[in-house]
């Protein structure tokens, strides 16, 4: 099921929160700049997710970018839930639930795009309306 996991990661790459605020907990040096304790820092997650320097064809939905020789590979710059000790504690739960729900749906149904529909994710669309996309869904035969 590596392709399912890669698909979830690719979806997260496209919808991750565009800007993530943090506060420096100590005086630091980053890239030659001094960052004083209690400074508000914004991580531009949109640039990390959509940079052509980091991703080949970043506007395209391509789960294959997370697969190498049939295994899931997560680049260091893919951090939709942050990184380190301060990363989102819901990341693992989101990963497991997403995988379980999607894998079970695909086991029972064939889900396909409808010709002529636009499936691009608008920039900054962390929360989408309930009726965002329509798909063709048909039960799989056993």
UniProtKB/TrEMBL annotation:
It holds the Pfam family p450. GO terms for molecular function: heme binding; iron ion binding; monooxygenase activity; oxidoreductase activity, acting on paired donors, with incorporation or reduction of molecular oxygen. Heme binds at residue 88. Keywords: Heme, Iron, Metal-binding, Monooxygenase, Oxidoreductase. It comes from the Eukaryota. Its cofactor is heme. The keyword Oxidoreductase applies. InterPro entries: Cyt_P450, Cyt_P450_CS, Cyt_P450_E_grp-I, Cyt_P450_sf. Belongs to the cytochrome P450 family. This is Cytochrome P450. It comes from Anopheles maculatus. The lineage of its organism: Eukaryota, Metazoa, Ecdysozoa, Arthropoda, Hexapoda.
